[in-house]
Amino acid sequence: MIHKVAAFYQFAALPDYRELREPLRTFCAGLALKGSVLLAEEGINGTIAGTPGAIDAFVRELAHGAMFGGRLDNLELKFSTADAMPFGRLKVRLKKEIVTLGDAAADPTRQVGIYVDANQWNALIAAPDTLVLDTRNAFEVAMGTFEGAVDPDIKSFGQFKDFAAQKLDPAKHRRIAMFCTGGIPCEKASAHLLARGFAEVYHLKGGILKYLEEVPEAQSRWRGECFVFDERVALGHGLKELDLRERDKDAARDE
């Protein structure tokens, strides 16, 4: 059976996020969904999988149902598929942040970078005066990244602010284009840089996943695979599930 996978997030004021946990968990369990959902006062973030009908019902509830009262009407959504259920169980967790940076000034609901659609990304990163910045950790970058992108060499996103303080200069880096897997860390990262005085900060709307979904492989500036946080491990163009074991076997035969 083909499973539908939804990756989603939205920064939105959820002061009642603690009270939302059990109703959301019960709703997801009733649809036999599995995956992980994070709730915080600043919003929601998660990736879940189930039947296509169950995923559609889940998205409708978040965006239009009584549970969130219309506060999640601007969800960033990416859909993909998996041959087998990519999650072992359902988890609904409470967090201080839906993506951890540790900078109270980085509030995407107040200021955020300029969104760049996937079909406009190639032109932006090809410009000679653009610093292209991968905000993911070193393991993810090693699996794949955009041509010419700077690797911050961090172990977790929480270290990004230290990298920015040490390596980035508002006077020198006039235009920064950043990207991440699904788009959410870039929202925090761009808010952080704007708060520090950087003038032009762009980020890839919907992240790498949206780019791989929409940009044909023949026109792509992406190289490698995109790591995802489930049992599929990595996705390629068209958000196709990759069999890395077969790839490794082919590489071994070529050696």
From TrEMBL:
UniProt key word S-adenosyl-L-methionine: no
The UniProt keyword set, sorted, is: Oxidoreductase, tRNA processing
Q: Matching InterPro entries, A to Z?
A: Rhodanese-like_dom, Rhodanese-like_dom_sf, TrhO, TRHO_N
Q: Which GO terms describe its molecular function?
A: oxidoreductase activity, acting on paired donors, with incorporation or reduction of molecular oxygen
SMART domains attached to this UniProt entry: RHOD
Domain named Rhodanese: residues: 126-220
In terms of domain of life, where is this protein from?
A: Bacteria
Give me the reactions it catalyses. uridine(34) in tRNA + AH2 + O2 = 5-hydroxyuridine(34) in tRNA + A + H2O
Q: Name one Pfam family in it.
A: UPF0176_N
One of the GO BP terms on file = tRNA modification
Entry's NCBIfam families? Answer: PRK00142.1-4
Q: What does this protein do?
A: Catalyzes oxygen-dependent 5-hydroxyuridine (ho5U) modification at position 34 in tRNAs.
Q: Which family does it belong to?
A: Belongs to the TrhO family.
In Swiss-Prot or TrEMBL terms, this protein is called tRNA uridine(34) hydroxylase
- Gene that this polypeptide is encoded by: trhO
